[in-house]
Fold each of these.
Amino acid sequence: MALILFIMVFSGALKDVPVLKALDFNNMMGAFGVVKGAEGNFQGVGGVGAKDGFMVAFAQLPLLMLAMGIVELATKYRALLAAKVLFTPILKPLLGIPGAAGLTLVSSLNSSDGGAVMTADLYDRGYLTQDERTIFVGFQFAASGMIVATVTLLAMAPMLVVSPMFIMGILLLMKFVNGNLVRLAVKRRPSSDGENRDERAA
């Protein structure tokens, strides 16, 4: 049950559902306000260099804290263990990664930053080896945050010659293609996993 709830939170399925939209990850993230009389948000516009880079990084802090907090909850309520059982038969043959990455995969489809944070956390907790992390990053890198990107395309719906769902299907297919290209590259070189998953998780 906890796994289903966390999947719904990260998938964007609750984004426009009355009352329940308060549980959607992006809705919980919210948005920065605009300084009165200024353009953009607190970052402003036209920034360059290290200072602008710092502001971009600073803007990611709320997302990092929220994503890590939700992962901690998912771990506490054994959602990651449930994901491991449910998703391993799917993800192991398709990408060569354990099912524990299933929740993170769902998150990465909606938020590239959230997926990145959760992937790093999975590795730190010992759920992913270094090679598995590399493969998973390859999957995420192609068309990152594809759900948000596809929803953005809906504004251009009158000009589209194919349905947004078809576009989303192609993007998802190419994510798996990219992940497996990285998987092939990883297999063709000596393993970089100096220690196994169980040893790091201990």
Amino acid sequence: MYALTKWLPLAPNLQELEVTMSFDRFDAYTAGPNDRIWKAAARGTTETPHFVLPTLRTLSAWAALIRNFTCPALERYVMEKFTRHDKYLTDYLEFVKRSGAPPSFRTLEIRSSENSPVLGYFLSTITNLLITSPDKSIFTVFSERSQGDGVLGFVILPALEYLEITNCRDDCLPHLSSLVTSRWDICIAHRTLKSLKLIQCFASSPVPELLLSPPTGGIDLTQVGDNWREIARCVNEGLLLSI
């Protein structure tokens, strides 16, 4: 936090910030003698600073640090992984509230989701979700439907429009297909999913080229393997798929 206290006041118009608890990033750009000085100062710091970043759009911060920020213009929050500590979830929810629950905050990115998801992070206002190395349980959670006032929807991320998945294992393909069709096969008036992006996914069964560049007359589903056929149907009906 010592380094942030020194540098953030010099960047009043900062739009993107990534900060961790490690010294590694700073070490790479610091001369040896100065390095020892600032580390000593960091150890001696007793006050916890708070930073109001009025123009920040993207914040990537370890869960333990988010309590130190207020970001009224936030659009995207990046978390390294799910943490099951209740305090960190509370800090996250208070951070969003303290920032004024900005309507621009619609994107959540999880860089490692091999652990079971902590549902409290998925605010109902989130429309864009980016996940790396998802666990199978993720797909089940996002497929769960709800019905309130006679309207069929979804329990988690009811407004999800854009889903981006990176580094997904081959055995997760059936679960992804179930998730996509669950989100797609709903009353058109309440359908929110618009776009799916897959990055470095399914090495043994890559996305068929037909789905990425569908012909004008639509995809002939008989030409698509069973494992991609349902997603191909959704593409035929308007889902945008990319890699």
Amino acid sequence: MHLVRRLSPEQRELELKKVQLAALESLLAQRQQELDERRTALEAFEKRYLELIRARRLKLDELLERLGQLHAQKVRRKRDPSRPPRMPPPHPRPPAAQRPVPAPGPPDDDPDADPTLKALFRAVALAVHPDQARDEADRARRHAAMIRANSAYAGGDIQALTAILTEWQYAPEHVDGADVGAELVRVIRRIALCQQRLPAVEKQLADLQHDPLMDMLRMSQEAQRFGRDMLAEKAAALDEEIAAAQAMLRRMQAGDGSR
């Protein structure tokens, strides 16, 4: 006769929580992957947009500004023919590249920082500092948390610092023990972390959807379905506008020179 092993209430609850956790982790991983893929696509599109469009727009704006200045001078000469013509000043050069802004130091180095922000940063640093690590895996987790904390402090993000501290205080890894009770607590905490992170990922996805650059990316992808390169077409159109503006500028300058 075989005895049927019955699960204790804690074991049954643990099994149910594991099923719930697996579903949440799968959903979170799926949404995070979707977010990462959209960010990667958007970054690639933005890079190509800047390469093809930005310099051309700046050049066209410069030409149009010079044309406007020449036209204004022409109008003034008509009003006062004795006034000598004056060539427009060259387009000002962009300012020299600024030195990179140094990373923010500890809160004590920033007397103007929000006291709440400083106190919260100290609490996070005290809780997650890598010097308190028990092993290399723990050190890596603490190091990653400190990087996030420094970034949040630099951005003055109290909400992000609060989230980091809360996550750390209730991290599953901080629950010791190998019995069912300890494992149940760890699983419950992992569920809570998933439930906390999922809305944040969903919000980032929603924010991307409303990014104007994302609208351009979608239009570009739609054009690709019909064999068109939207950015290349836009660059070609700008080249035509630049050529037309340059020709007009030469004519206006030649007209001034013949006077």
